[in-house]
Automatic annotation (TrEMBL):
Protein name: Flavin reductase like domain-containing protein
One GO molecular-function entry: FMN binding
InterPro entries noted in UniProt: Flavin_Rdtase-like_dom (IPR002563), Flavoredoxin (IPR052174), Split_barrel_FMN-bd (IPR012349)
Species the sequence originates in: Caldanaerobius fijiensis DSM 17918
Segment forming the signal sequence: none
A Pfam family it matches: Flavin_Reduct
Amino acid sequence: MIKEVPYNQYIAEVNKQLTSGGLFLTSKGDKVNTMVIGWGGITFFWGKPIFIVPVRLSRYTHQQIEKSNEFTVSVPMGDSLKEALRFCGSRSGRDYDKFKECNLTALPGQKVSTPIIKECSLHYECKVVYKQDMIPENLATELNQKWYPDYHTMYFGEIVACYLTGEI
């Protein structure tokens, strides 16, 4: 069952999950991969709903998004995926098949070629409309010292589909 929902209907749930466990950011290039993001958010730019996701340049996901110019975000609800979040947030897709290791199921996206994660209930499909590499000298010194051994590219993904596949 797929139920389309407005992109902003579940912003509170997305923000809560971002700060308490993370979201699955899935990319597709040489293979399908997912990573966990704990930063990012949904906003409105250029007359479009946008999901901003930061991805460090060193991450396998970075090269995947660079090739495909799209990504999906799947939002886990509850604690059932806590171990998968922990594993996918601490291992590289270069070295592991995270879907296999965590018993996650990739389902085809509705409007992009990158899959979603079946075990999650809420999904965003995004096409990159802008990206920006961080400029270290433009970052406050205290943030730079605390958070940055490796900088992010900020991907602005137009939300081209938002839907539920389960209960929230």
